[in-house]
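just leaving the lab so this will be short. below you get a single protein, a line of residues and a line of whole numbers that encode the local backbone shape. id like you to explain what the token line says about the fold, in plain words if possible. thanks a lot i owe you, the record is right below:

…
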Amino acid sequence: MKNFLFKSDPAPASDPEKIEPELDALATVPTMFAPGEEKLSQQEFRALSPQESVWPHGSMSKLPESLIMMVDDEVLNIEMTQAFLVEAGYRHFASTDAPETAVEAMRRQPPGVLLLDLSMPKVSGLEILEAMRADSVLRHVPVIVLTSSTDPQVKLQALSLGAMDFLSKPVDPSELALRLRNTLTASAYRDYLRQHDPLTGLPNKQRYRRDLAAVLASAQDEQRAGALLLVGVDALGRVNDALGRASGDHLLQRIGKRLASCVQTEAGGELSAGDVNPTLYRLDGDEFAVVVPHIEGVHSAAAFIGKLLDDAAVSFQRRGSPELFVTCSIGVAVFPTDGADPELLTGNAGLALRHAKQAGSHRYEFFTPRFTQVAQSRLDLSAELRRAIGRDEIELLFEPRVELASGKLLAAQGLLRWNHSSGRAIDGDELLDLARGSEMNVALIEWVLDRLRLSAGKWRASGLQPVPVGIGASLANLPLTELSHLVSAAIAGGLEPRQLTLELQHLGGDHRLHDADEKAIVALRRKGVRLALDRFGSITSVADVRLITCDEIKVDASFAHQVENNPLNQAMLLGIGDFARRLNLTCVACGVDTGSRLSFLRKNGWQQGQGRVFGKPLAAVPFAAQWLSKSGRSQRVELD
């Protein structure tokens, strides 16, 4: 497909004076076009018009190729009508003067249009219409009724059974040709819309299912392998939220155009099977599909997949905002190994796509059976997580954070642990991912805030001095405004704001906050709640520091791994520390699990750290016994 829908109601291509203002307007509003693509030529602009996208002009030339079937008990009527149509340019015909055989004949070869007499012996035209309406395929065949009847009730009954048009006998040849052309055109237009996505002009999900079933059947007959590639746009929801759905639609159109161009270059190549070429489809939401009918091996399509990833990456920019990049991820399922029927193959490709996105944007994954096992396990755990809180299977632990120069306790991080009934402990990012996937993150945050309020209250009641506690909060599917409401409710219930640090993750890829989000941040800080960017250098980045006013950054634990003998990790870790000092931000090294890591950080003047070298996470009571005091003097850990 070369034609894609970008703007509605464009000026006619034949009027250049009207086109140029459209192009100027297109260049002055926020667009999805990369630098150098802002101005479109008249030819390009014409190719993007809705008329071209929805209904290719070439389709009109195919109408004479349509199969026209006539059912009439008078052979002379059939012969005369066919002669009229041959003179009008039509070339393919089928007919029968035995109406009782008509429905079965149409099932064997559905016509493009049926010319049907109503008054016939044995089986009437109305009975044929009724049988067609009950058939899943034939109900879509357009019917023109040829009748000498003038009874309006007969016409109403025929219309109610699906007839599209009427012609009175004897038939006028010119009227027959015009009505036939109009009926075929309307039918072809309807079929095109039913099988194509109106946004991109690409074949849609219905066409995809039909074509994939045919490709799988032929691959089985010829004993060859092929592949299904599911292409998902990374973080499309964030683009829609930040810039509006219209901008997201423009982005999808542009990515679809790039993917289509890439797929077209493979026509007739090693990924084709006979006259069946790789084909691109638009599925639901942010997903496209590419059916590759032939591959020699799992890795033979790797170059093509890499090219799809590169070509689908687009950039766009709004005035006054930084240039943003949007990429795609791809899940690959190979047939027949990963599935020989459309539903199974599509499901497995979807699992591979999900794993590709979880591993990071702009990458691809081949399906493996392990993905199914992991998906089933996650599904079971997600269902159980909803009951875990009520069963008291979740506990809040506290991990100490210390000043590296003195070993003095400065704060703690609240860690969730799910003591599963199987005896397995689920914590950390695995538990947070489960919560997001099962929409339990709000319930978990409410529970954590309430448990922190209770623990801090017991510490104070015992005369102990609480320390600030950091609580992780993912914003992947939790708006800042809602998080602010949860915190405000906890503060109203007795939680002291100065004892809480919100450690934020998954802020978003558009580097822009809505007014409501900015107000929520201001409200939280005014209450005295500290804000931190968690897993800095991995899930959060320098761009997020510009996005949100925070008090501290917590460096992802991966930077501390092998820092003793890895020069790259050393340079990056020290660079992040220097960056934080220049911005007057508290900087915390996570994953300080060995003495050698601690020694490196202390030697290079690092401020704060947390990890197993300072002690394991503890429940509220043992944590208080080991770390908190009545005097208010911070406890220390021996570092030498």
About this structure: Residues 1-55 have pLDDT under 50 and may be disordered. The first strand starts at residue 67 and ends at 71.
